[in-house]
Amino acid sequence: MKMYIEERAIEVANFIVNSKATVREAAKKFGISKSTVHKDLTERLAQINPELAAQARVVLDINKQERHIRGGMATKEKYLHRMQ
Length: 84
Prior knowledge:
By secondary structure, the chain is mainly α. It has helices at residues 3-19, 23-30, 34-48, 50-83.
C-alpha cells in the first residue's frame, strides 16, 4: 500500500474518533468519497493500526445506529421550512 494512502487512513480515523464525525463529514473535510472513507476505515486501517481501527469501528457503529434518527430530524426540518 502506498504511504500517502496509509497516512490518509490514519488521519481520517483520528478525525472520526476525535470528533465523532460521520463518514459524510469526513469525506467532505478530506475531499474524498464516502466509499474511500469507508474502505480506509474498515479494510486498510485494520492492516495498518488495528487499535485505531477498533476505535473508529465503535464510532461508525454508533453513527449507523443513529442514522435513522438524523434522517427523521432532517425530514422534519425540511417540512417545517416548507410550511413557513
